[in-house]
Design goal:
By secondary structure, the protein is an alpha+beta fold. It has helices at residues 2-11, 23-32, 85-98, 114-122; strands at residues 40-45, 51-59, 69-76, 104-111, 126-137, 140-150. A hairpin with a 2-residue loop joins strand 5 and strand 6 (140-150).
Length: 157
């Protein structure tokens, strides 16, 4: 996971991080995973234990009123793109979120990114607005298109 994310951080606008995270950060992310809160980390590996990609959901914002919303993301290693890995990971993540306690999933996609926009739309996300010039990386300002997808939370009995 760290290798895939570090490559995205150093060479793409897919994340506004400019470098990868430490092993300690990844360990803390694993430890913070809690299906009861809708904080998930799903990893796809080859039979030889090579990480192909990962999808995650976690806290959207620190304020308590946002507790029923999560932010989602998916990253796939360069060697595994175009083979359906990202779609399979994201579909699995959303199915798990649909059976959990949360009400809404959100995702920000740096523009332009037709592939990610299409993936989000195909999995039930709706574009809700664009933050213009919200991040500066590689010497230019980038827009972020925000998506949301209602989750099928269990009804109160």
């Amino acid at each position: 996971m760290g290798r895939i994310y570090a490559a995205a951080a150093s060479a793409s606008s897919a994340t506004f991080d400019e470098a990868g995270h430490s092993t300690g950060w990844w360990q803390a992310t694993l430890e913070a995973s809690d299906p009861r809160l809708g904080h998930l980390l799903i990893v796809a590996v080859t039979p030889g234990d090579d990480v192909m990609g990962f999808a995650k959901s976690g806290r959207f914002r620190d304020k308590a009123a946002y507790r029923t919303t999560c932010e989602t993301s998916v990253y796939v290693g360069a060697d595994h793109r175009g083979a359906g890995v990202g779609r399979a990971l994201y579909r699995d993540l959303l199915e798990r979120l649909d059976s959990g306690p949360l009400l809404l999933a959100v995702a920000g996609v740096t523009q332009p990114n037709d592939v990610s926009n299409g993936l989000h739309r195909s999995l039930g996300f709706e574009a809700v607005g664009t933050f213009t010039g919200v991040g500066v990386k590689f010497g230019r300002a980038w827009d972020v298109l925000w998506f949301q997808r209602p989750l099928t939370a269990p009804s109160a009995s």
